[in-house]
């Protein structure tokens, strides 16, 4: 790592730490942005680096959401009565209970999806290409439908997560969730960046480029595929747990296992920024969040129409994403050796 | 949970017959899916939304006082042109690309259609009442709505017409040639672009028929599309591309499975069980093939 990138990282970190105080009105939006970046970055481990395009990461996100809230409630109060009474009316968390519950909940929300990803991954990561994509799509929707039928976590009427304790009001709540999600983002970034400098990334890229050949070279692809998916699941579950607390209300198909929104968003963000790059999903998520808030504010009611059009346009005209476009334009910056004569010849051919 | 199904054999018969009639409809949708998958190598997530759109056409005829059964004729004609329009706008740009691109692009179309239908027709669950009455069998123990029998009958007629058309007509031959080898077909003078457009149009028309029948027999709702897509995908992967009897059989099997899941697990798990079945089938086939060091292609 050279000096410039250190300055960049420290600059971003400092900006992240002071952002809620500079833009106090946008704390919730910034927290959501952090969660979106986590989701896009972890999707990229699958879709971008490994070439296994999944719609199923929403499964871990939703699972994390339900688990975190359930643990947070279940540690102190009977879960069934909580969901039946609609939550906060009967039972009140004291501040220490709330924070203890949240900490334990987040640990469970990160660990259990990781194990689930390992088990499911063993079963379905042997599928390839579009079979994998459709299978994960099915998993996500099935999880939503099934969790919508389970009584103890609120079934169709939803699950209210514990409200933030009455200390410091709305400001403190916003800051707490912002720093929680920013912490998750920093953790994800460090982990993903560390992974991307190791042999592991090269193996994932080999699987993406030609899985049969990778296998023939003696790589146990299954092992690496499962590990890759477990890493994504860990951070997706964490992000889900935070998002559940932030939104304050969990519904099976509209909030947790929301394949139509979050499940597509994470794919779209990664593609918009550029699959298979470290910074692509981050830039993509930031851009997308601006787009999305614009649509959701100015075209209320038409937002899904806009979203559908956006998906089609991005996928058809912009499949390489921003980073891919930059890479084609300035290949030297990406460390590619360019043969000038060859490049000129190619330009003439075009 | 009391397993009524096992205590009263009549319920079993009822579920089987219901599932059979339902499955024939699924097979019709799945046939369209297999057609476009085989010919153009795209997976259309918007398949279910085309079905629902076809259903709304029949529902509208019903609202304006025309008998909804005529929707079986009107809906495919309109849907054919809708299909051609979708092809010209979006699909022809994704045909030669990676399959995931087509999945994502049609997912976008699906979201678009869902929301547009929601605006145009409202978010209510609607039904076009055909007024056909019911048939009672086995001492009035088994109740079959005549509309279901009608819809199964119409589906079979359409399927037979299509098979004959694909075998005999010039366009059908061109479609089959393109499915076998698009490049060779192009060299021998088949306008593959036209063939693709026609294939997508025919698929949309089939969806239109199925949708009109579904609006008569069951209910339609703007957001109900995705389960139909998944069902048809499932039927196609079980039966294989270009295996028409297989598509019919697995369609009926799926219909019966769903009816039993409905009785045993409860209606709230019906859609969930369909999606889970898809995952289970894929996992089963993956393990079966991996013993031979192969994978699903």
Features:
heterodimer; A: mainly alpha; two-stranded antiparallel ribbon; B: 297 residues; mainly alpha; ABC transporter involved in vitamin B12 uptake, BtuC; 12 helices; 3% strand
**Percentage of residues in strands of chain B:** under 5%
Low-confidence stretches of chain A: none
Determine Rg of chain A (CA atoms, Å). 21 Å
Output the number of helix runs of chain B. 12
Fraction of residues in H or I helices of chain A: over 70%
Q: What proportion strand of chain A?
A: under 5%
Largest interface, counted with CB-CB under 8 A?
A-B, 41 and 43 residues
H/E series of chain A: HHHHHHEHHHHEHHHHHH
Number of helical elements of chain A = 16
Would you kindly provide a written description of the structure presented here, covering whatever features stand out?
The complex is a heterodimer of chains A (350) and B (297). The mean pLDDT of chain A is 83. Helix content of chain A is 75%, strand content 1%. Chain A has a domain at 27-259. With 350 residues, chain A is an all-alpha fold. Chain B is an all-alpha fold and 297 residues long. Chain B has one domain: ABC transporter involved in vitamin B12 uptake, BtuC (Orthogonal Bundle). Helix content of chain B is 75%, strand content 3%. Chain B has twelve helices and two strands. In chain B, helix 2 (9-40) packs antiparallel against helix 9 (192-217). The model of chain B has no long low-confidence stretch (mean pLDDT 84). The A-B interface holds A 53, 123-124, 126-131, 133-135, 137-139, 141-142, 144-146, 148-149, 155-156, 260, 264, 267, 271, 301-302, 304-305, 307-312, 315-316, 319 and B 43, 90, 93-94, 97, 99-101, 103-105, 107-116, 119, 226, 230, 233, 237, 266, 268-269, 271-272, 275-276, 278-279, 282-283, 286-287, 290, 295-297.
């Amino acid at each position: 790592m050279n000096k410039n990138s250190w300055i960049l990282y420290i600059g971003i970190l400092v900006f992240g730490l002071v952002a809620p105080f500079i833009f106090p009105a946008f704390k919730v939006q910034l927290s959501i942005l952090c969660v979106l970046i986590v989701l896009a970055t972890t999707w990229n481990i699958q879709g971008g680096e490994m070439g296994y395009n999944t719609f199923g990461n929403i499964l871990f996100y939703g699972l994390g959401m339900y688990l975190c809230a359930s643990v947070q409630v279940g540690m102190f109060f009977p879960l069934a009565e909580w969901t039946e009474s609609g939550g906060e009316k009967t039972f009140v968390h004291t501040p220490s209970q709330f924070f203890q519950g949240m900490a334990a909940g987040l640990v469970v929300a990160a660990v259990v999806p990781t194990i689930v990803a390992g088990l499911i991954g063993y079963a379905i990561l042997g599928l390839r290409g579009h079979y994998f994509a459709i299978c994960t799509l099915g998993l996500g929707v099935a999880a939503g439908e099934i969790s919508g039928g389970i009584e103890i976590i609120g079934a169709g009427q939803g699950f209210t997560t514990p409200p933030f304790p009455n200390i410091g009001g709305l400001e403190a709540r916003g800051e707490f969730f912002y720093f929680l999600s920013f912490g998750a983002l920093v953790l994800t970034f460090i982990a993903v960046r560390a992974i991307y400098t190791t042999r592991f990334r090269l193996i994932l890229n080999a699987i993406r480029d030609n899985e049969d050949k990778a296998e023939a070279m003696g790589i146990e692809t299954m092992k690496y595929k499962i590990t890759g998916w477990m890493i994504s699941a860990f951070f997706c579950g964490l992000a889900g747990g935070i998002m559940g607390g932030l939104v304050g209300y969990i519904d099976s198909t509209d909030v947790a296992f929301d394949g139509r929104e979050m499940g597509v968003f994470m794919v779209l963000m990664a593609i918009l920024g550029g699959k298979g790059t470290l910074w692509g999903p981050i830039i993509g998520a930031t851009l997308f969040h601006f787009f999305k808030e614009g649509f959701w504010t100015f075209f209320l009611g038409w937002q899904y129409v806009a979203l559908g059009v956006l998906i089609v346009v991005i996928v058809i005209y912009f499949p390489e994403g921003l980073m891919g476009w930059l890479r084609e334009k300035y290949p030297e910056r990406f460390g590619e050796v360019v043969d000038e004569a060859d490049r000129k010849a190619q330009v003439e051919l075009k | 949970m009391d397993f009524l199904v096992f205590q009263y054999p009549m319920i079993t018969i009822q579920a089987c017959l219901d599932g059979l009639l339902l499955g024939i409809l699924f097979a019709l949708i799945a046939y369209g899916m297999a057609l476009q998958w085989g010919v153009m190598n795209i997976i259309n997530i918007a398949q279910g939304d085309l079905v629902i759109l076809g259903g709304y056409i029949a529902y509208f005829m019903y609202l304006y006082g025309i008998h909804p059964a005529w929707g079986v004729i009107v809906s495919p004609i309109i849907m054919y042109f809708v299909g051609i329009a979708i092809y010209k706008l979006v699909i022809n740009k994704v045909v030669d690309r990676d399959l995931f691109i087509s999945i994502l692009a049609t997912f976008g179309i699906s979201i678009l259609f869902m929301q547009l239908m929601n605006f145009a027709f409202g978010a209510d669950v609607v039904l076009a009442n055909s007024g056909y009455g019911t048939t009672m069998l086995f001492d009035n123990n088994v109740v079959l709505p005549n509309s279901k029998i009608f819809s199964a009958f119409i589906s079979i007629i359409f399927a037979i017409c299509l098979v004959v058309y694909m075998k005999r007509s010039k366009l059908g031959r061109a479609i089959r040639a393109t499915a076998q080898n698009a490049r060779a077909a192009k060299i021998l003078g088949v306008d593959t672009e036209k063939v693709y457009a026609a294939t997508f149009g025919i698929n949309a028309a089939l969806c239109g028929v199925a949708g009109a029948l579904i609006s008569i027999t069951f209910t339609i709702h703007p957001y109900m599309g995705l389960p139909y897509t998944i069902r048809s995908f499932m039927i196609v992967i079980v039966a294989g591309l270009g295996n028409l009897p297989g598509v019919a059989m697995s369609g009926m099997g799926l219909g019966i499975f769903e009816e039993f899941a409905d009785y045993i697990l409860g209606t709230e798990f019906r859609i969930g069980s369909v999606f889970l079945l898809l995952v289970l089938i894929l996992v089963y086939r993956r393990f079966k093939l991996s013993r031979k060091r192969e994978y699903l292609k």
